[in-house]
Amino acid sequence: MNERILNKDEYRADFRKVEGASLKRTTHLSSPHAKRLFARCFYSFQASMYFISELGRVKLDHEVVERIEQNIRETLDSATAEINTAIDQAEALLKHHNIDVLASYDTVPLQVEIGITSSFGRRYFDLMHKLDVVMPMMETLAIEEIINERELETRRSMYKRAVLHISTRARNLWMGVRRRMNERDARLAAEAAKPKPTGQRRNAPDETDGDTGHESSIGTPAVANATEDASAASSDPHPSPAELPEPAGQDQEVVRAAA
Asked: Quick one: where's region Disordered (predicted)?
């Protein structure tokens, strides 16, 4: 039975891109509910968290990845608290009714060595085993008619859903991270495809020649006029006061003060 559960293709996760080290642990799951949830959720959860924590930090801001990780931690805390409360309540009922022996499963426990790649995987591994603890306790309470079958099914479904929700949430968050990474790559590719500015426009050869010719045509009369003024000044070294130019602006005031 254990081999049939583990060999299902739908439960397999792709670990080809996982390059980190792992802590080796051995599972010990007895209830069929915990076995199936482990095979269905644990490997995919670890793969999703690896892609979020490792690949996400390569292309996204670390603050974004840290918020996602904190969301997963809070979900793990909530599910762990729910299962712990269920164990405490079941123990109290068993003790109150003087029940010391729990119901057991006749199938072989699922014992397989797995690699834990992160603290998230370790906490999820522990949560799986807590689920395996509470399941036979609930079965015992139902067999002893302390709870009815309807309550048994309700509680069992609730605890399984709490564990399954963590893996589903991690997978959805990873899909969101991958979408952001693809959007970033597309944005960078679009920016790289934009034409780059060529800088200042250079004048054409004919424009440069035209400007030079214009400056030459302006400069030549100026030089000629300056030459004519110099010749006139040299021919009349003592101009009369009436011919002198009037000083303008501050020069006029300076002249008045001197007078």
From this structure: 185-259
Residue 201, classed as helix, strand or coil, is: coil
Q: Hey, what amino acid is at 89?
A: Q
Phi, psi of 23 (to 5 degrees): -95, 125
Number of residues that this document lists for the chain: 259
Query: Does residue 226 fall inside a structural domain?
Result: no
User: What separation in angstroms does the CA of 47 have from each of 44, 187, 209?
Assistant: 5, 27, 70
What pLDDT, on the 0 to 100 scale, is given for residue 185?
81
Element (H, E) at 114: strand 113-116
Q: What is the pLDDT of residue 169?
A: 95
Express each pLDDT in 193-220 by its tens digit.
888 776 555 555 555 444 544 444 444 4
Residue 163 covered by a domain: yes
User: Which amino acid, 186?
Assistant: A
Q: What is the pLDDT of residues 88-115, one digit of tens each?
A: 999 999 999 999 999 999 999 999 999 9
Domain count for the chain: 1
163 closest CA partner among 142, 139, 134? 134
On average, the pLDDT of the chain sits at 79
Which residues are bridge partners to 113 per DSSP?
A: 26
Dihedral sign computed on CA atoms, order 183, 189, 193, 197:
positive
76 located within any domain: yes
Range of the domain at 72: 2-7+21-183
Q: Are 31 and 105 in contact (CB under 8 A)?
A: yes
* 72 contacts: CB under 8 Å, gap ≥ 6: 49, 120, 166, 169, 170, 173
